């Protein structure tokens, strides 16, 4: 029952983002600006929740060893992702959508959008790379206790994280990326199930 509950918890955010990706406009125009703005406002609290998939397996007091240090690194990197990727959502999503929606009819949209896109992209890429660091640190923190069982989930998450750097949640790759995160988090949580701790660690 606990495993099922945790699986639902770690996969909820990426699955919700995958569904949102199906409705995400493919481009920001005067016609799509209102939808673009509203969608990013709704998703503002959702993107940071991706980190739940990493925090649940390492939600314990860090020990004074390599795994404990890695756990702290994972927490810090997850926070960095949440902060910087929220910046992308706010700047290239909400701000750009609002600017285009209220732009004068004769105003060119390119010069209006480009600075916001550039700033948002820089923030988003920083956040995505921080998420990759968080995945690696989580794997290092979990491996001593759970061994190779955390490898499949880590591999799927690293592939998804690399795709996330420039895919956002746009259909089709962004949606598949979110589904990859859901699968990776589920595999990682299963591999880190405390009922499957390696005997060599429980005997100490």
Q: Note poorly predicted spans.
A: none
* Largest pleated sheet: none
Shape assignment: elongated
Proportion of beta-strand residues: under 5%
Percentage of residues in helical conformation:
over 70%
Describe the structure.
Helices cover 74% and strands 0% of the residues. The chain has helices at residues 2-23, 33-43, 52-55, 66-101, 109-146, 151-167, 173-191, 199-202. The longest helix is centred in the middle third of the chain and has 38 residues, at 109-146. It contains eight helices and no strands. The protein is elongated and about 60 Å long. With 204 residues, it is mainly α.
Write the layout of secondary structure elements.
Layout: H1 2-23, H2 33-43, H3 52-55, H4 66-101, H5 109-146, H6 151-167, H7 173-191, H8 199-202
Helix pairs in contact: 1-7, 2-4, 4-5, 5-6, 6-7
